[in-house]
Design a protein that fits this description.
Length: 313
């Protein structure tokens, strides 16, 4: 498996000025999004919903967050293992992250802020909420495009209100020396969809279908949109969740903001429209949130493809 020169991730402009729901360019864009996801499981979106000021403010706030003492950061404990606080793991020693649950609600962001800064941090709270809401709008656009492209809008509408958003500021300490070093081990995400945003330091790599690692370069005004395991099951395997990792190089720490959507309290059915003689049913109806819990059991952790082990046919 080498690094790829032959693959380049599709870049799709989803800025508001270029999207008109009733135009033929909308239909063309839906097709582009679907093709990119079917081919790579991911693409780079140009999206103008997050202003430069907001981006700078939230990245600066992430710096302050990771500068807090470890005794404070470990207080962030969530129901889903590994979403609360991760730091100094022996297998990902440069990686550190903190998850903020219900990140598009005032209550979700406020309770996290109070835990980290008992005397308050109004600007963190406001910026994290504004950022999460803006990226959740991008999620709505992307999901609408996927659903329209497959003709499964009604299925999506039946659970779109059950989307739950986890904002995960992440920090990677810089590598020592010129060699590329591992930032996060190869994995697929276990939620429904992932939206990544970074400062100027690259490092994300995606495994292509033919086994090449694609180095992802994207500007601070773009987002990586990535399918996760639950989207793969819902689309009956039409879209694969791509394996990805982070490799670090250079002398700068890397900051990333991940927004992860999960469908909660809803059993996701596989749309009949996606099942035919060329695409036999591959998955049973499943609960995305329970699947995430299953992943952290010994059976889930030891499985080569946990979503198949959990609800595959
Ligand atoms: O840092 C990145 O670019 C990717 C992070 C990631 O894969 C994750 O948090 O699941
Ligand atoms: Fe990931």
């Amino acid at each position: 498996m080498g690094s790829s020169a032959k693959h380049k991730l599709p870049v799709i402009d989803l800025s508001s000025k270029n999207l008109n729901l009733n135009s033929s360019s909308w239909v063309t864009k839906c097709g582009e999004v679907r093709r990119a996801l079917e081919e790579y499981g991911t693409f780079i979106a140009i999206y103008d919903g997050v202003s430069r000021e907001l981006r700078d403010a939230i990245l600066l706030a992430s710096n302050e967050l990771f500068d807090l003492p470890t005794e404070v950061k470990v207080l962030n404990v969530l129901d889903t293992p590994y979403n609360g606080y991760i730091g100094n793991q022996h297998f990902n020693p440069l990686y550190e992250s903190l998850g903020i649950e219900n990140a598009i609600t005032t209550q979700g962001v406020e309770s996290f802020t109070k835990l980290m800064w008992p005397s308050g941090n109004q600007s963190f709270c406001e910026n994290a909420l504004m950022y999460s809401k803006a990226v959740a709008e991008l999620d709505k656009i992307v999901m609408k495009m996927i659903a329209e492209s497959y003709g499964i809008e009604e299925h999506y509408e039946s659970f779109s209100g059950s989307s739950s958003y986890l904002l995960k500021p992440t920090k990677y300490l810089h590598a020592q020396g010129d060699e590329k070093v591992l930032g996060i081990m190869p994995h697929t995400d276990k939620c429904f969809m992932t939206y990544l945003h970074q400062d100027e330091v690259n490092g994300l790599e995606i495994l292509s279908k033919d086994g090449e690692w694609i180095e992802v370069e994207y500007s601070p005004s773009s987002f990586v949109v990535m399918a996760a395991d639950a989207l793969m099951a819902w689309t009956n395997g039409r879209i694969d969740a791509p394996t990805h990792r982070v490799m670090l190089r250079g002398d700068k720490d890397r900051y990333v903001l991940g927004l992860f959507t999960t469908i909660k309290d809803h059993i996701i059915q596989i749309p009949q429209e996606l099942v035919d003689e060329h695409h036999p049913l591959q998955f049973q109806a499943f609960d995305n949130y329970k699947y995430m819990q299953f992943y952290y059991t010994p059976e889930g952790l030891n499985s080569e493809c946990p979503i198949k082990t959990y609800c595959g046919i």
